[in-house]
Amino acid sequence: MEAVLDWVVLVMRTIGSPGVGVATALETVFPPVPSELVLPLAGYTASQGHYGLWPAIAWATTGSLVGALTLYWLGAAWGLERICALADRIPLMHAEDVRRAVAWFGRNGRKAVFLGRLVPGVRSLVSIPAGVDRMPLATFCVYTTAGSLAWNAALILAGYELGAQWHLVEGYVGPAGNVIYVLLAVVVVVVAARRLRHRVTASVSGATRRSRPPHSRPPR
């Protein structure tokens, strides 16, 4: 973790505010460290005079959009049918589950993209169903940019104001992210348990029907 943060600082100090965009784009697609650390660190580095505060926010938002577009195109290229085929190979999952999720996204796409950018652990993943659903690219970019701007500005400003204490931001945001992870895990477990119970019930019912003797027809 420290080696990655040292590399992030080196990039930011070497190429200035565009380095914030590079770090944010990489964090979005391949998150070696959470944005809760990268963005406050970017704010602290700005407070040291290596670049301006507002350019840091602008480049961070640009990097977030580039990373989100990468995942959007990945979802679009993979396609719904291939993802559904993959879901059918995963225990306790069905292609119909994926179709319902994509349908829900189709009804709530704008809210999902905007609010998803404000939720740790969901910020990157929300771009994939947007690509699968072929959400209009302009709409995706607008809502992704708006959500990313709010998130990036809040964390960079916090790091800027805290200075050398920038790492305290993660202490507040991290627990909130953990709560979300726990809630998501509970949802997954409940869905899996219901699916397993349904399969067991269906299996028992099928075995019972097969074990019953056939009804004899009355003599004519």
Can you describe this structure?
There is one protein chain. The chain is an all-alpha fold. Helices cover 79% and strands 0% of the residues. The protein has nine helices and no strands. Helix 4 (53-78) runs antiparallel to helix 8, helix 5 packs across helix 6 (95-116) and helix 6 (95-116) packs across helix 8 (137-162). The longest helix has 44 residues, at 168-211. The radius of gyration is 24 Å and the shape is elongated. It starts with a helix and ends in a 9-residue tail after the last helix. Residues 180-188 have low confidence and may be disordered.
Name some characteristics of this structure:
220 residues; mainly alpha; 79% helix; elongated
Shape: elongated
**Strand percentage:** under 5%
DSSP summary, beta strand count: 0
The helix tally amounts to: 9
The SS-based structural class is: mainly alpha
Secondary-structure element string: HHHHHHHHH
What is the arithmetic mean of pLDDT? 75
Our Rg estimate from Cα atoms comes to 24 Å
Percent helix range: over 70%
Distance between the termini: 84 Å
> Main beta sheet: strand number and arrangement?
none
Which residue ranges are poorly predicted, with pLDDT under 50 across at least 5 consecutive positions? 180-188
